[in-house]
Amino acid sequence: MTSAPVIIGFALENLSSGDVWVLKWYTPLEGIKGRIFEVSCDGVEIPYEGMLMKRGDPEENDYIQLGSAESVRAEFDLTTAYSLPLCSECTVTFKGRIHDVVLNRQDVPRPWDEHQAIDAQGDPVVFSVVAV
């Protein structure tokens, strides 16, 4: 197992022509607070060991505003939620779901039962875990 941090970057970009408000929950924009990644090392799935959150309705500060063509980036340490063994190929993939995207500022925050989720596309991150 590695005890060294494994820092991974996550970026979210607004490809629409207008502003959007994105719920940060279940994305790296809030850290790792749930099973938001698929992680495998040398083809073996690595179980999630981090915190799990139960949530009510979001508050306004749970959303982030992104203008047209604007992006936001976050970095996180994968080892805070996964025990990574020494391996030649470790693959991390975001599960690809943004739980609420709002197009009108006056609708933020939205109650849980009115959320409009969208799928997010991205490339997996591949790296090796070696002894140092």
Can you walk through the features of this model?
0% of the residues lie in helices and 36% in strands. It has 132 residues and is mainly beta. The N and C termini lie close together (11 Å). The strands form 4 sheets. It has a 4-stranded antiparallel beta sheet, with no helix packed on it. A 3-stranded antiparallel beta sheet has the order 5-2-9, with no helix packed on it. Strands 1-6 form a two-stranded antiparallel ribbon. It has one domain: Immunoglobulin-like (Sandwich), CATH 2.60.40.2970. A hairpin with a 2-residue loop joins strand 3 and strand 4 (44-45). The mean pLDDT is 94. The chain has no helices and 11 strands. The protein has strands at 7-13, 20-23, 37-41, 44-45, 63-66, 71-77, 87-94, 97-98, 101-102, 118-119, 125-129.
What is the end-to-end distance?
Answer: 11 Å
Compute the gyration radius: what is it? 16 Å
Strands across the major sheet, in which order? 4-3-7-11
Task: Examine the coordinates and then state which fold CATH places here, giving the name of the CATH topology.
Answer: Immunoglobulin-like
The best one-word shape is: elongated
Task: Work out the helix count.
Answer: 0
Unreliable residue runs: none
What class would the helix/strand composition place it in?
mainly beta
Query: Helicity, in percent?
Result: under 10%
CATH architecture: Sandwich
Brief summary:
The protein is mainly beta. It contains no helices and 11 strands.
